[in-house]
Specification:
CATH architecture of the largest domain in chain C: Up-down Bundle
Number of strands of chain C: 2
Radius of gyration of chain C: 25 Å
Radius of gyration of chain B: 21 Å
Number of helices of chain C: 21
Oligomer: heterotrimer
CATH class of one domain in chain B: Mainly Alpha
Largest interface: A-B, 57 and 61 residues
CATH topology of one domain in chain B: Four Helix Bundle (Hemerythrin (Met), subunit A)
Strand order of the largest sheet of chain C: 1-2
Mean pLDDT of chain B: 89
Number of domains of chain C: 2
Largest sheet of chain B: none
CATH topology of the largest domain in chain C: Cytochrome C Oxidase, Chain A
Structural class of chain C: mainly alpha
Number of strands of chain B: 0
Strand content of chain C: under 5%
Distance between the termini of chain C: 72 Å
Low-confidence stretches of chain B: 1-22
Helix content of chain C: 55-70%
Chains: A mainly alpha (about 110), B mainly alpha (about 210), C mainly alpha (about 650)
Order of helices and strands of chain B: HHHHHHH
CATH superfamily of the largest domain in chain C: Cytochrome c oxidase-like, subunit I domain
CATH superfamily of one domain in chain B: Cytochrome c oxidase, subunit III, four-helix bundle
Order of helices and strands of chain C: HHHHHHHHHHHHHHHHHHEHHEH
Distance between the termini of chain B: 63 Å
């Protein structure tokens, strides 16, 4: 890269935005703390039991994905086609298939109800 | 280099998508999202293994016996906070504030370091009470799953240091901005993985 | 204290001594040529450091053909041992090693590089791009594959080959039952090449999605591009499962963990499960690209556009997703519940539907076409009956209750050779003959090619038809000998004869390549479009300049090049002086090969459990990455004037 391209501070196609308070990040952070605390208290204080509790804390964890994606990773921003949304969607789908499928398949030996 | 990017502006103006001009950075971010998808599947397989093997304690230590509520709670809040500070570093970058960027990124790396430190002390403690990965299938799966995440975090810290060095040396330009964006994505991704570790391994382990 | 090994040479077998001597002789000959003709600089500059997708593609072809030779010799050794009952040609232990390396090499180091050769040589040219999205990463992919293959191949002279089948099932592969470094070689070789494959998947997905020429919408893409897109999707989501399966088994072996052991709560079937989460999609990784090849070859030599383009696209995408949903059919006999076996049986049959759609479309493409029986077309036509039989026997195997009968028998062996040779190898060879002129500037000789094809095709049926019958008669796979009086003798002998016919066919293919290289001036392709074909790569000279397109073409419809030729406007794609501008290209780099050498050192360290070596290797890997990260100048511009000169020299302006 030649030196004249670095002139004018930011050069090379980078243009800074103006100053602003990072509202999105603060809200995202607070939400992630709240969700974690709820999950934590729900388990330690035995608010619910068994499958219901597991479903609730899994749901809270899934909501945390949403928070990281939208508030921090700016998932929906960006130029050009949004193939990365599709890629991550597939990844989520196959995650469920592989984890669920493995547990289903490997529960052989008589204990499973199909 | 004899020819600068300016000479290519005509080519770009005509909407050409081919070539290796300024959209190279954007391509790399796109590629990194795909890489994150593969990393997600990697963790999916480790989670699947953990879930299949977690009951197989071979009469050795069980999750309830070895998980330390205080320890994993601290780890969780440290990592959540580091994800936030990493976001602030990216925010400072978008505003072109190099000082803010370096400050927030250093804080992120330090938080990451203390997370790794806590995890290592947790592992050392477990091994001390006889819960080694050679003891049972549950422990093999536990150490591998949590350890793989810890390894990712450690690599992330090294990566951040390298990027801080480059930003200090060259300032914020399209290339260093892209690099920071990518390491940020990586870091937030690790936070997501941890939320699932926290939920599936630790919370469900002490239930 | 964990044991570790010394890389002792494997001794005691005349076959291995023979291999040792020939390896030494070939290495000395190569070194002699390089020193005598002072070719080191040329080799380094033009090949070892290249990031040009066309050259990387050629490297993949060479590697695939070399490995096909090695894997083929393994196959012939096995067939020789089985030709008669109670043979003592190979000892049982040696036989185990031979079938393990045969399978591993054929899938990972023949089929995969053939696919990646296709990806690299054709895709950027076909979509009107100047290179792939990440050329540097592309070089890393090749070298990781190369050193992975090298690691597996040195095992049979140093330390001992893996001997637990290409699937390397636990608990047989646990240290307790399989001490020695053989299995470590397998685990690290696959791990290394797997990293390369994953990077290739990412690279080509981004290339196809983001680097197409203006106007080439998704539904205007050639079908090979669609097929590679589908295969890349599979690579991206399937390979991590292999990474994990191999890593966990390695942790079991070197760190004494209990993932897949018999005791301490380990579950050996979890290895099988993880392996096939990758393994089944892998079958489609090596099949979808050749489906793409056939979708280019049939229209080109039938003089018609492909029949049912949209249904072709839909079935490719359907296969790529459904391929992830049927992995458990590889272990029906594990004894999972009836629910599991029922679902996976039905899903396995269902994937036959999109595949069937494609076979009909290819046949309808030929229907009433003006067919030219060239070499690519011959392999393509030969593929159809092959694949129909392979598909039909596949549906038989998919029926879970029936599978209890066929499982691990020669029926299964015949089935998967039918689809993998009949599909992947026929397709790769069709593709090789088709794009050979684009790579090298001359076509391959037709007459020798025809002999090779017929030897191979007849040999194929003679080899594998008897194996279906043997399987139904109860002969299981992986047995090194059998007693007389089972009724298997004649069929085995017939199968062996067929195998040698195929071997002869391979020799003829190599002879065809050598003969055509010697007569390349007569076989020269001067037009750039020797087959009168349809897609953009044929609008370029053969071989294309390293920047591919002097001016990136604008696409307005499917089969743009064919349509332009038909309307007599093919010249539209030739560059004009004022359109040519400076072209930005990536720099060559020595780091990919150095990076991969360090990974190879890590691999050796794990194989022999030398921890210091692992640390040194990893430090090298990290250092190379860091040096690359701080590198500022990774590309250069070719001035417009130089491009003009080159195009003029090519007679394009």
């Amino acid at each position: 890269m030649s030196s004249h391209m670095m002139e004018g501070g930011h050069g090379d196609g980078f243009t800074p935005h103006g100053r602003s308070f990072p509202w999105l990040h603060v809200v995202g952070y607070l939400l992630s703390l709240v969700l974690t605390i709820i999950a934590f208290l729900a388990v330690l204080n035995h608010w619910l039991s068994g499958r219901t509790l597991i479903s609730i804390i899994m749901l809270l964890a899934v909501m945390q994905i949403g928070i990281q994606l939208f508030f921090f990773m700016h998932f929906t921003e960006g130029h050009g086609p949004r193939y990365h949304i599709m890629a991550l969607g597939f990844a989520l789908f196959f995650t469920i298939i592989f984890v669920g499928g493995s547990v289903w398949i490997m529960s052989f030996g008589g204990s499973q109800a199909y | 280099m004899a020819v600068s990017n300016k000479d290519l502006s005509g080519v770009l103006a005509r909407g050409q998508s081919a070539g290796h001009s300024h959209d190279e950075n954007e391509l790399r971010v796109a590629g990194f999202w795909i890489f994150l998808s593969t990393d997600m599947i990697l963790f999916a397989c480790l989670f699947a293994t953990y879930l299949v093997l977690r009951g197989n304690t071979d009469a050795g230590p069980t999750p309830q016996q070895i998980f330390d509520v205080r320890g994993f709670t601290e780890e969780t809040f440290i990592l959540l906070t580091s994800s936030f500070t990493c976001g602030l570093a990216t925010h400072a970058m978008h505003e072109g504030r190099r000082g803010g960027l370096i400050t927030w990124l250093s804080i992120t790396a330090l938080l990451g370091l203390s997370f790794v430190g806590l995890e290592v002390s947790e592992f050392v403690h477990d091994v001390g009470v006889g819960a080694t990965m050679q003891r049972s299938a549950f422990l093999s799966a536990f150490f591998t799953l949590v350890g793989t995440h810890g390894l990712h975090v450690s690599i992330g810290i090294l990566w951040m240091i390298s990027i801080m060095y480059q930003i200090l040396k060259r300032g914020i330009n399209a290339t260093t901005a892209r690099k920071l964006t990518i390491v940020g994505l990586y870091w937030h991704f690790l936070d997501v993985v941890w939320v699932f570790l926290f939920t599936v391994v630790y919370l469900m382990g002490v239930m | 204290m964990l044991p570790h090994y010394w890389p002792t040479p494997v001794t005691g077998d005349p076959l291995i001594y023979g291999a040792d001597v020939s390896i030494a002789l070939v290495s000395i000959a190569i070194l002699f040529v390089l020193f005598y003709y002072k070719k080191w600089g040329w080799l380094w500059r033009e090949w070892l450091t290249t990031v040009d997708h066309k050259k990387i593609g050629i490297l993949y072809v060479i590697a695939a053909l070399l490995m096909l030779f090695r894997g083929g010799v393994d196959g012939l050794l096995m067939r020789t041992q089985l030709a008669q009952p109670n043979m003592h040609f190979l000892e049982s232990e040696h036989y185990n090693q031979v079938f393990s390396t045969h399978g591993t090499i054929m899938i990972l180091f023949v089929a995969m590089p053939f696919m990646f050769a296709l990806f690299n040589i054709v895709i950027p040219l076909q979509i009107g791009a100047r290179d792939v999205a990440f050329p540097y990463l592309n070089a890393i992919s090749f070298w990781m594959f190369f050193f992975g293959a090298l690691l597996l191949n040195i095992s049979f002279v140093i330390g001992g080959s893996p001997d637990a089948g290409w699937v390397s099932y636990a608990p047989l592969t646990e240290k307790q039952f399989d001490p020695g470094p053989g299995e470590n070689f397998y685990l690290m070789a696959l791990q290394l090449s797997g990293i390369g494959s994953m990077a290739t998947g990412i690279n080509f997905l981004v290339t196809i999605l983001r680097m197409r020429a203006p106007g080439m919408t998704l539904m205007r893409m050639p079908l090979l591009t669609w097929a590679v897109l589908a295969a890349s999707i599979i690579i991206i989501y399937a390979f991590p499962a292999l990474t994990i399966a191999l890593a966990l088994l390695l942790i079991d072996r070197v760190a004494g963990a209990h993932f897949f052991t018999m005791g301490h709560g380990g579950n050996p079937m979890m290895y099988t499960n993880l392996f096939w989460i990758w393994g089944h999609p892998e079958v489609y990784i090596v099949l979808l690209p050749v489906f793409g090849v056939f979708s280019e070859v049939f229209p080109a030599f039938s003089g018609k556009r492909v029949f049912g383009y949209s249904s072709m696209v839909a079935s490719l995408m359907a296969i790529s997703i459904v391929s992830f949903l049927l992995w458990a059919h590889h272990f029906f006999t594990m004894g999972a519940g009836p629910g599991v076996n029922t679902y996976f049986g039905i899903a396995s049959m269902a994937i036959g539907i999109p595949t069937g759609v494609k076979v009909f479309n290819w046949m309808f493409t030929m229907y009433r076409g003006r067919i030219r029986m060239t070499m690519p077309m011959r392999w393509a036509v030969g593929f159809i009956p092959n694949f129909v039989i392979g598909g039909a026997t596949g549906v038989m195997l998919a029926a879970a209750p029936g599978d209890y009968q066929y499982h691990n028998s020669f029926f299964l062996i015949a089935h998967f050779h039918q689809v993998l040779i009949g599909g992947t190898i026929y397709g790769s060879l069709a593709g090789m003959y088709f794009w050979w002129p684009k790579m090298f500037g001359f076509t391959l000789d037709e007459k020798r090619g025809r002999i090779a094809f017929w030897l191979w095709n007849v040999g194929f049926y003679v080899t594998f038809f008897p194996q279906y019958l043997l399987g139904l008669m109860g002969m299981t796979r992986r047995i090194y000998t059998y007693p007389p009086g089972m009724g298997w003798t004649n069929l085995n002998l017939l199968s062996t004869i067929g195998a040698f016919l195929m071997g002869l066919g391979f020799i003829y293919i190599v002879w065809d390549i050598l003969y055509s290289t010697m007569h390349r001036s007569e076989l020269k392709d001067v037009t750039g479009d020797p087959w009168n074909a349809r897609s953009l790569e044929w609008s370029l000279p053969s071989p294309p300049p390293h920047y591919n397109f002097a001016v990136v073409p604008t696409v307005t419809r499917r089969d743009e090049w064919w349509e332009l030729k038909k309307s007599g406007r093919a010249d539209v794609l030739r560059p004009t002086a004022q359109d040519i501008e400076a072209i930005h290209m990536p720099n060559n780099s020595g780091k990919p090969i150095i990076f991969s050498v360090f990974f190879f050192i890590v691999g050796l360290g794990f194989v022999f459990e030398w921890y210091a070596v692992i640390v040194i290797g990893l430090a090298g890997v990290l250092a190379t990455m860091l040096l690359r990260s701080v590198e500022e100048d990774t590309g250069h511009h070719i001035p417009a004037e130089e491009v003009r000169h080159e195009e003029m020299a090519l007679g394009r302006m």
